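Input.
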Amino acid sequence: MGRMVSPTPQVVEYLARIGGRETPVQTKLRRETEKRADGHMQVTAEQAASLQILVKITGAIRCLEVGVFTGYSALAVALALPAQGRVVALDIAKDFTDLAKPYWKEAGVDGKIDLRIGPAAHAMDAMIAAGEGPFDFAFIDADKPGYDAYYERALKLVRPGGLIVLDNMLLSGKVAEPRHQPAWRDRSRVKLLPPEATGAGRKARPFFFSASAAAKPRRDHQHPPASFPLRCRASGRGKVSQRGVVIDDPS
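Output.
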């Protein structure tokens, strides 16, 4: 096993303190979201900063976000884009995204964000049918049982050589529990096992997604410890390649 630093509360606090650079508008939106009972669904400041770095180093112009919540991650991505950049943001809940809009406007990025309300899989199917794209970057942070469907659709929407980023793939470490290990070794079983077969119900499906993403020949993958990205490089359409990045946190 490679060397790693245990994610103690002190280490986590240190990383949050030095790694989450925000604009004043970002800080206000994050703090307002934290007051909500469901505020834990928001990405952290350091995760948002990581998304911005990925957008910048890939030179992304067209971005796709699946799962907007109160708009903090979309705000971060939009701020990192050049003037001509655009984010297509998909969410099913208007009450969440209504909170986001004033902050997007205050930050001057509301014109960069194309918000679409409704089931994300349906929206992505419509985008594929219409030939929309290609996108340079995609961030998936929505309902976990839907991850495999969103990922498969993102592969059709993101250009070869683009990035796909997924959040919350470790699920508090449950992916490593022995009861889930058999599903990691055979993707056909992953696709066919009913949720009740694991005793974990719907929450088992994201673990299966982790396994299937590693097993699919379209991607190479590498999964660092703790809260750092799992990276997948896909041999995509023809001889070109696509890349996926899975941003994990312990939740």
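Strands lie at 62-66, 86-91, 113-117, 135-140, 158-166, 220-222, 230-235, 241-246.
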